[in-house]
Amino acid sequence: MDFEFSLALPREAVGIPMVRRILGDSLAFRGVTRSCVSDILLAVTEACTNAVRHGGPDNRYEVEAAIGPDRCDVRITDRGRGLVRVPDHYPPNDIENGRGILIMQSVVDEISFDIAPGRGTTVHLRKRLRRHDGPAPARPRELAAV
């Protein structure tokens, strides 16, 4: 069963946990392993953080996700200046920023960029899904007081 959703979010960090929750719960419900969910959420968090920081004059950015039987595709689109270039190595340790794209590349199977200078960037993340052998593990439930 395919599952798709799209969100238009304010360019504020407060929306990032919402994206993580919706996407993470959707993947977990479909039996995707925790490590695979973690990889996807790390990459999506990095892309959303970049959209919030560099999204330009527009006050919104968009997240579109499609979860299929064996793959997850996520697109994060902002209306910023556009990515100048993809870095080919990590910055020095004393630099605080600049690792996001390289982190994304390390945890997803494919990453691509649709860059329109002056009009925005779309980051497209793709990851093959690893699933549990059996049904998804049950979530712990809180017991009612007797």
From TrEMBL:
<keyword id="KW-0418">Kinase</keyword>
<keyword id="KW-0808">Transferase</keyword>
<dbReference type="InterPro" id="IPR050267">
    <property type="entry name" value="Anti-sigma-factor_SerPK"/>
</dbReference>
<protein>
    <recommendedName>
        <fullName>Histidine kinase/HSP90-like ATPase domain-containing protein</fullName>
    </recommendedName>
</protein>
<keyword id="KW-0723">Serine/threonine-protein kinase</keyword>
<feature type="domain" description="Histidine kinase/HSP90-like ATPase">
    <location>
        <begin position="16"/>
        <end position="127"/>
    </location>
</feature>
<dbReference type="InterPro" id="IPR036890">
    <property type="entry name" value="HATPase_C_sf"/>
</dbReference>
<dbReference type="InterPro" id="IPR003594">
    <property type="entry name" value="HATPase_dom"/>
</dbReference>
<dbReference type="Pfam" id="PF13581">
    <property type="entry name" value="HATPase_c_2"/>
</dbReference>
<dbReference type="GO" id="GO:0004674">
    <property type="term" value="F:protein serine/threonine kinase activity"/>
</dbReference>
